[in-house]
Structure formats: C-alpha cells, structure tokens
Amino acid sequence: MIIGSIKNKKLLPHNLGYSSFGAAFLWFGWMGFNGGSALSASGLTASALLVSNVAAAVGFITWVCIDAMKEGRPTILDAISGAIAGLIRITPAAGFVDIGGAIVIGIGVSIVSYLAITYLKPKLGYDDALDVFGIHGMSGIFAVPAINGIAGLFYGNPWQVIVQIIAVIATIIYALVLTFVIAKVIDKTIGLRVKEEFIRIKTGENDRTVI
Fold first, then answer.
1. I need a surface site. Which of 14, 95, 171, 180 has the fewest CB within 10 A?
2. Does pTM top 0.90 for this prediction?
3. Overall average pLDDT of the 62-76 stretch
4. Residues 102/88, Cβ–Cβ less than 8 Å
5. Could you give the CA distance from residue 168 to residue 162 in angstroms, rounded to a whole number?
C-alpha cells in the first residue's frame, strides 16, 4: 500500500519550536544587518533599529489578524511569515523612513505576501517550498529627508520612485537571466527535479512506503 508521494505532500515544518527559535534568532540578527549598515553607533543606527522592529512587529500582527479573519484562528508559522516579510521589506528603507512609514510597510507587505502565498501560488502552481517568491519577491515612497537627507514621493521627490522602479526592473532582469542559465545548466547535468523513488519496506502484514 502506497501511503504517500512527493506530489501530494504539503510541506510543513517538522518542528514549530525550532521554527520559532529560528525566527527569533533571525529577527535579532537582522538588527545587526540593518543597524550595522550605518557603520557607526549614531542616531541613524537607532532609527534603523527602531523602524526595523516596528515593521517586523506590525507584519507579525497583521498576518495574525488576516489569519484570524480568513481561517478562524492564527498559526505561529504564518505569524513568523509576517514578521520575516516585515523585516525583508523594511531593509532597503530602514535608513530612510520613520515609524509611520514602517507601520505602512509592515501592513502592506503582509497583505501582499499573504495573497501571493494563499491565492497566487496555488493558482499558478509554481514550486516554492519556502515561499521565497511570496515573501521576498512580492513584498521608497516613504523616505523622510530629516532622517538621511533623501526625500521620497510623499515628501516632494517623485523622481525617487522612478529611480526605484528602474532599479527593480534591472534587478528582475538580472535575476531572471542568471537564474535561467543556472537552472538550464543544472537540468542538463544532474537534473532540476528530484525523481520520485519509493522503497517498499515489509512490516509484518502491512507494507508502508517511504521516500
């Protein structure tokens, strides 16, 4: 009797405790990532740390609220996804936005990432076990000149949005081309997908299948 296959298995973490610890360590380490980018113990560093924590916390809370409304109850795994999404999205803006911008970023990225993971991924059927595209790919207009001398759209500098759009398009093209090349090389050598192989193990009167 075959009791499972690769295709019909929902990929869930094997231990939510480990996932929670991992998220906590990542959140903590992210402060060094964003705060350390200022290269000094300054007011800019403190601001980056503050908005990074705010965005992560708001992303966490927003995802919990969405889960509670849509699914009837929140889950720790989804809450972690919200926090990570907030950290990812605030990173390029950490040295430029204030708390208000961080709150909007945390709310917005959770909504967009939730929709991408819950609806877009099943509809398109693409492989993304870790929801990298949903959280990283889908998740500058709030830059405050008083923080780092650069103004965003809401502070009278619409050109900044154009610069960011150009940068995003260039990054997408670069990533697509190199990823396609790397994937083709792997596909032609060792294969891009893992083959399904079942090994029958006789256990008394019952057969069970493992991968």
1. 14
2. no
3. 86
4. no
5. 10
User: Residue 46 is encoded by which pair of tokens?
Assistant: 């403190």
How large is the angle between the packed helices 16-36 and 76-90, nearest 10 degrees? 10
| 79, 65 contact by CB (below 8 A) | no
22: left (phi over 0), alpha (psi -120 to 50) or beta: alpha
Counts for the chain of helices (H) and strands (E), in that order? 8, 2
Q: pLDDT band for position 197 (50/70/90)?
A: low
Angle (CA) 52-84-55 rounded to 5° is 30
Per-residue confidence (pLDDT) for residue 142, from 0 to 100: 63
Where are the domains positioned within the chain?
Answer: 16-157
Residues comprising the chain, all counted: 211
Round to whole Å and give the CA distance between 45 and 94. Answer: 9
Residue pointed to by tokens 């500058």: 140
Gap between the Cα atoms of 67 and 84, Å rounded:
16
Burial of residue 89 (number of CB atoms within 10 Å: 0-12, 13-18, 19+): buried
The DSSP secondary-structure symbol of 137 reads: I
* The architecture CATH gives domain 16-157: Orthogonal Bundle (1.10)
Residue 72 CA: distances (Å) to CA of 20, 65, 101, 111, 113? 21, 10, 29, 17, 19
| 60 confidence band (pLDDT: 50, 70, 90) | very high
